Amino acid sequence: MNTLERFRHFLAQAPFMRDLGVEALALSPGRVTTALTLQPRFLQHTGQAHAGVLATLADHSMGSAAQTLAPDDHWVVTAELKTSVLRPAKGERLVCEAWVLKPGRMLSFTEAEVFAEDAQGARTLVMKASATMAVTAAARYSTPPQA
């Protein structure tokens, strides 16, 4: 996965990400930026985005960042995930910036920041996340469904 178009195709192969409407904004080796327009179905009873939505966006973005550095015949899967919600996520959309801290043959260490963005484009940091990603031979997993 080395182009933004391939990253968009990669996201389209993940049914859950496609269902949520996650979009790819930027891609470079070891780094990705994604976004998700907030909809009423993503909110808590308090009007803020559900922490599970933020965690999902961070998790998949960190995995995608690690995937950019993985060999072509390998998949990246989450081995460990930690999130810290810093403040309520309210706004028009969520933007996640994710990067690889340390790539490895078997494990990659990643981090992400999730921002709530208002209608004017102002961003507020709402979550910090870190994950350990396992790099595994693709043959161990079935091929993702086609879009």
Main features:
147 residues, alpha+beta, 6-stranded antiparallel β-sheet, 6 strands, 22% helix, ACOT13, PAAI_dom, hydrolase, PaaI family thioesterase
Radius of gyration, in angstroms, nearest whole number: 15 Å
The count of strands amounts to 6
CA-to-CA gap between the ends? 17 Å
Strand content: 35-45%
Helical residue percent band:
10-25%
> Mind summarizing the main beta sheet?
6 strands, antiparallel
Give the overall shape, derived from the CA principal axes.
globular
- The total count of helices amounts to 3
- Walk across the major sheet and give the strand order: 1-2-4-5-6-3
What's the rounded overall pLDDT mean?
92
Question: Which regions have little confidence, pLDDT < 50, spanning 5+ residues?
Answer: none
Order of helices and strands: HHEEHEEEE
Structural class: alpha+beta
Domain Thioesterase: 47-119
Protein name: PaaI family thioesterase
InterPro entries: ACOT13 (IPR039298), HotDog_dom_sf (IPR029069), PAAI_dom (IPR003736), Thioestr_dom (IPR006683)
Pfam family, one: 4HBT
Describe the structure in your own words:
The model has no long low-confidence stretch (mean pLDDT 92). The chain is built from three helices and six strands, in the order ααββαββββ. It is globular and about 45 Å long. A hairpin with a 5-residue loop joins strand 5 and strand 6 (123-137). With 147 residues, the chain is of the alpha+beta class. The longest helix is centred in the middle third of the chain and has 17 residues, at 51-67. Pfam families: 4HBT.
